[in-house]
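A sample follows:
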Amino acid sequence: MDEQTHMGARLNVLRAGVLGANDGIVSSAGLVLGVAATTTDTTRIAIAGLAGLVSGAMSMALGEYVSVSTQRDTERAALAMEQRELTEDPVGELEELAHLYEAKGLTPALAREVAEQLHAGDNTLAAHAEIELGITVGQTVSPWNAAITSMLSFALGSTLPLLAILLTTPSLRVPVTFAAVLVSLAVTGTVSARLGGSGHRQAVIRVVVGGALAMAITYAVGRLVGSAL
């Protein structure tokens, strides 16, 4: 596996970690604010927040493991089929690869030359996988790495609003938590945008506005439920 493949795998794991932290921040903030809207009992808020942290982290881990495992199995099956086709009909696969390069803008002669050189080397399957299937051989994220990264990042993100609401006085809990969460979301939005190579302003606005709406709605629901009890 070359350096570029290693870098791609690391970026995928890091991106999953940032998104997991973002989910943890929003989920935990909504949960603890919803509970805080109904009670000032610190113990109840702490129990609810801790339960949300643990259940959310486990759910993220399971979801990532299943998702990445399914993607990996699908890619492996597609690669195995492509390898069988290369073994059974190498001439037909050569023609197909040449046509695909023609479709990308190469002249027929150059497309044929490129296809023949790739078929003469050791990267025939990799070439077909990339242009036919959109798969980069060897750049599959480990299900366990994805699961553990998502679990830890979600738990870390969930910790912030939980600490913010538990370490402040009841009268300041809501505004302090709102502020802490919005700042944290701005940071994760910026990091996520930079990892994706896109402009960070729009990404930050989306994640901050979304998080603010989620907290406002859950807090309002908590107030309505609390007043009805």
The chain has a mean pLDDT of 84.
